[in-house]
Amino acid sequence: MNALKRTITALIITASIAATAKASTHKIEFEADPIAYGLGGASGHIAYTWKNERIQLGFAMLELPEALQENEAVGEKFKAISLKWDYFFGRPDPSKGFFVGPVLDYLFLDYRDNRGDEANRQRVNLGLRAGYKLDLFPKSSFFKGLYITPWVSTSYIFDNKSVELSGNKYALKSIKIFPTVHIGWSF
Fold first, then answer.
1. Where are the domains of the chain?
2. Which end of the chain is more exposed for a tag (fewer CB within 10 A), N or C?
3. Is the pLDDT at 76 greater than 80, yes or no?
4. Max CA pair span of the chain
């Protein structure tokens, strides 16, 4: 629960910084991952943008569907607190376009086999993500700032040793590829 309190505090600090920004290119953004919600999980992110850069703090949680699990005999779920920095190429205002940047996640991982044995891990994930931010209604006054962002990341999970459940060892991959789509609103 302390991690959730720290996340909320960081979100409030980020919002405060954005609210006091003087330049019009400084904005605050809120994003969610509809795929996570569609799979029964959750995802929420807050970002601060300036010039051609964006910094984002987020929280996500999901029980992975069987098709996405590393081992068919092991159920996996995670919670993640993430920090992302994006650089928008050739744009003085990060309202749209291609971006790339590092991502740092703190992962709370839970594994369970079909016998009910559980293992919990906490790991750090460091990677690189790239995507495209598309302003959906650039000429609308009501929907101004609504955008969609498809992106993909490749990450390395540090200290990702195998997990042992009911006397069986299951190997875990250290390299993860994570594609998704976020929907957001920029203010």
1. 2-186
2. N
3. yes
4. 60
Report which residue type is found at 56: Q
Q: Are 182 and 22 in contact (CB under 8 A)?
A: no
Tokens of 157: 């999970």
Q: Where are the alpha helices (DSSP H) in the chain?
A: 2-19, 34-38
Q: Which two tokens stand for residue 120?
A: 């919990």
Tokens of 99: 């971006």
CB atoms within 10 A of CB 142: 6
Reduced 3-state DSSP string for 35-70: HHHHCCCEEEEEEEEECCEEEEEEEEEEECCHHHCC
Alpha-carbon gap, residue 158 to 113, rounded angstroms: 23
Residues 6+ apart with CB under 8 A from 114: 73
Q: Which of 71-75, 80-84, 92-96 has the lowest mean pLDDT?
A: 92-96
State the CATH architecture for 2-186: Beta Barrel (2.40)
Over 50: is that where the pLDDT of 22 sits? Answer: no
Token reading at 76? 């996996």
CB 47 within 8 A of CB 54: yes
